[in-house]
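Supplementary notes for students who missed Thursday's class. We covered one full example, reproduced here. Read the sequence, then the structure, then the short commentary at the end.
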Amino acid sequence: MKNAMKNEAIKPKPFVKWVGGKTQLLDDIKESLPRNLSQIEGVTYVEPFVGGGAVLFWILQEYPNITRAVINDINAELICTYRVIKSDVESLITELGRLQKEYLSLDERGRKEYFLSQRERFNEKNTSDVETAALFIFLNRTCFNGLYRVNSKGKFNVPYGKYANPKICDEQTLRADSAILQRVEILCGDFEQTGRYADANALYYFDPPYRPLTVTAAFTSYAKDGFDDAEQRRLHDFCERIARRKSLFVASNSDPQNVNDQDNFFDQLYGKFSIKRVSATRMINSKVNGRGAISEIMISNVANAY
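Structure (token representation):
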């Protein structure tokens, strides 16, 4: 009985570390949502760039009246992992347990060799869905800073990270995530395919690849084709379309004025919507002095936003 109660206390949360994860901005996101959201029935929550899922897992617990959610991402391996967690979590736990046991039994040199061999296998892209998901989580927990980066050929190329005792198989979190994902439809592809859910009952949250603040900040290529200013404008046009269909949306992005106070890219692009600057902490940077408070922007068409 005690073990059952302990398991019930585990709440769903992101199953991977994720650059730009929104855990620290949840209070700001909540302020931008409709104040009566908890009383509205029939809301469909849509997240076209789900990433690590911090907002997804939070909002489905904060607002249990949201009984339907749709997530999407262009990262096929990430979406495969979500689907496996939803549909076959016990097989995933078994595979992760094997990887964790083999990895932790090695010395540092052996761990690095093991990491590189598993990274190569992951990049072959001919594994089963369960093994793909297990390798995705394994690499995330053992690579440098939990980055996800691919080269121009779409190959994951983040180097080995020197962690003493990484938790590769977090079975309680995985089971909790699996339970809540039963309420979620999972898509893979371009964000515009979520447009078919746009109506007066839809609430969108957009967390696209951020516009780089500097040239060197673009080193974390999330997909081999990137997400440049033309893509940012395409996303804006999509927001305009769903707003015309009465959908509500909130969007996050970088604030160019952190480095150039004359850069009004987003202020001009989203000028007809509400824009607020909020404080965030840059959590992943190879230089310690490059980690600290910066501002990010939040855009919304919610009437009571801010």
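Commentary. Strands lie at 44-47, 68-73, 184-188, 202-206, 248-254, 274-281, 293-300. The two ends are 45 Å apart (CA to CA). If anything here is unclear, bring it to office hours.
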